[in-house]
């Protein structure tokens, strides 16, 4: 790996006296209790509870920094502005900062989704690009992100394994898509899961993304058809626990 900068990520800054309250009513994670150095993975959903954007929140004083997919940053800002209305909130690209990653940088926070993903932080960009290395590492652990992999307005938030990856709070109050997300959780109705399968086993009807360079197909498959031996351990354990309830 050369460098630590993730070139495929961008930063949005949410500022203004109503910034945190604004995000609190939109996102799947609690924003009001966000603390410095303790990032949270969250989603902005459709009213039906399907994933539109996923990103990581960072506290920065009174502001919130959104660590998001660079290719979707402008679309995310536009979507947030639709909800902003007359609130005292500013939404802008933070060009002076970048997202960094390293598998071994204990002086920085762990990725909030899964400790095995490694360490993540925000700082000015440095030479080199760690994005390809992180992508390979992330996919090897069965963790998906971004519009292409999750499927914009196609996949219910809990079907993306969001609960297991700490992407939802059930006691934070209402947010967009909350009703269906909570219903699935309390009724134990997550019957399909986003998983990676070898390209030779791809099923186009279930496919969310084809990754020929990795030899993988990311697909939404029914839980009963999944072989636990082929799943990452964290997901196999979660599915086993759900079946036992």
Q: Output the helix-strand order.
A: EHEEEHEEEHHHEEEH
Regions with little confidence, pLDDT below 50 for 5+ residues:
none
**Remind me, CATH topology of the largest domain?**
Alpha-Beta Plaits
How many extended strands?
10
CATH class of the largest domain: Alpha Beta
Strand content: 25-35%
Structural class, please?
Answer: alpha+beta
Notes on the structure:
This protein has 245 residues and is an alpha+beta fold. It is globular and about 50 Å long. It has a five-stranded antiparallel beta sheet with strand order 2-3-4-1-5. It has six helices and ten strands, in the order βαβββαβββαααβββα. The N and C termini lie far apart (43 Å). InterPro entries: TrmE/GcvT-like, YgfZ/GCV_T_CS, YgfZ/GcvT.
Short recap of the structure:
The model has no long low-confidence stretch (mean pLDDT 95). The chain is an alpha+beta fold. Helix content is 22%, strand content 26%.
Name a few traits of the molecule.
single chain, 245 residues, alpha+beta, Alpha-Beta Plaits, 2 domains, five-stranded antiparallel sheet, three-stranded antiparallel sheet, globular
